[in-house]
Amino acid sequence: MVVSEKEIQVRYAETDQMGVVYHANYIIWMELGRTQLIEDLGYRYADMEKDGFISPVIEVQVRYKSPVRYGEKAVIKTWIEEYDGLRVTYGYEVLTEKGDVAIQSTSQHVCAKKDSFRPVAMRKYFPDWHEAYLKAME
């Protein structure tokens, strides 16, 4: 299985009054991890959009385990948890600077036409990308 890693330097603006990363910012970090994984597989989400397609989020689940604090570094690990040619579920783990698990999460997406939001099969419109996702899960 391909697992991508992205390091994040926690910025002050990402924290709450307690000095820990505000919970909604983890979803932004998940996007950074997902983008890194896609690039590691040799593709760019921006190119998909240029071709008239988007990949909206249809579900997100997050389990918060340990805080990440301002000034620390965190690592986002991202992989493809499930993929059926239409829907893809990405798995994530954010680790603290000490290596503790901060969150465990998933996000599910579909590929859709940008003008209509109608889901399409990636295997039909992006066959190379489809194959890369299948290989990445091995």
Q: What features would you highlight for this structure?
A:
4 helices; Thiol Ester Dehydrase, Chain A; 7-stranded antiparallel beta sheet; 138 residues; alpha+beta; single chain
Q: In brief, what are we looking at here?
A:
The protein is α+β, with helices and mostly antiparallel strands and 138 residues long. It has four helices and seven strands.
Q: What's the end-to-end separation, in Å?
A: 5 Å
CATH architecture: Roll
CATH superfamily: Hotdog Thioesterase
CATH topology: Thiol Ester Dehydrase, Chain A
Counting structural domains, the number is 1
Low-confidence segments: none
GO molecular function: fatty acyl-CoA hydrolase activity
EC number: 3.1.2.-
Family: Belongs to the 4-hydroxybenzoyl-CoA thioesterase family.
Organism: Oikeobacillus pervagus
Could you outline the blueprint of secondary structure elements for this entry?
Elements: E1 4-9, H1 25-40, H2 45-50, E2 53-54, E3 57-64, E4 73-83, E5 87-95, E6 101-113, E7 119-120, H3 122-125, H4 127-136
Antiparallel strand pairs: 1-4, 2-6, 3-6, 4-5, 5-6, 6-7
Describe the structure.
This is Acyl-CoA thioester hydrolase. Belongs to the 4-hydroxybenzoyl-CoA thioesterase family. Its EC number is 3.1.2.-. This protein has 138 residues and is α+β, with helices and mostly antiparallel strands. The protein has a single domain, classed as Thiol Ester Dehydrase, Chain A (Roll), CATH 3.10.129.10. The protein has helices at residues 25-40, 45-50, 122-125, 127-136; strands at residues 4-9, 53-54, 57-64, 73-83, 87-95, 101-113, 119-120. Strands 1, 2, 3, 4, 5, 6 and 7 form a seven-stranded antiparallel beta sheet that branches. The longest helix is centred in the first third of the chain and has 16 residues, at 25-40. The chain starts with a strand and ends with a helix. The mean pLDDT is 96.
